[in-house]
Amino acid sequence: MRYRLTFVAGVVLGYVLGTRAGRERYEQLKKSARQVAENPAVRNTAESAAQQGRAFAGKAYHVVSDKVGDVHMPDSVTSRVRSLRERNTNGGGTDDWGTSNT
User: Fold this and answer.
1) Are 92 and 101 in contact (CB under 8 A)?
2) Which residue pairs, CB below 8 angstroms and at least 24 apart, start in 81-87?
3) Highest mean pLDDT among 17-21, 28-32, 63-67, 88-92
4) How many CA atoms lie within 13 A of 53 on its CB side?
5) What span, in angstroms and rounded, lies between the C-alpha atoms of 98 and 2?
């Protein structure tokens, strides 16, 4: 699904950059993209994908840290995982992409 979405976004971007339809057509495309982005189904899917990504990242961190130990993990990784854990524990806020953690 990710590749299909990337392909469609590329086609739309190519059309917008390559077209000579003018500002009116650009505004129509922009309005359509905004409507898709504001669709509750799209937002829910994006939020669930973000949650799954955070869960997989946490699991991967645990597997790696169990094998190499926390001492060998870079500080940037440990601080990022720690902040994600705190955010998930507190149950609030939004992530870096503007989606909520609900």
Assistant:
1) yes
2) 81/57, 84/54, 84/57, 84/58, 85/58
3) 28-32
4) 11
5) 19
SS (H, E, C) the chain: CHHHHHHHHHHHHHHHHHCCCCHHHHHHHHHHHHHHHHCHHHHHHHHHHHHHHHHHHHHHHHHHHHHHCHHHCCHHHHHHHHHHHHHHHHCCCECCCCCECC
Which of 37, 46, 58, 54 minimizes the C-alpha distance to 99?
46
**C-alpha to C-alpha distance for 61 and 58, rounded to whole angstroms:** 5
Q: Give the span between the Cα atoms of 16 and 7, in whole angstroms.
A: 14
Single pTM value for the model: 0.43
pLDDT category of residue 70 using cuts at 50, 70 and 90: low
pLDDT digits (tens, 9 = 90+) for 25-56: 778 888 998 998 889 998 899 889 988 988 88
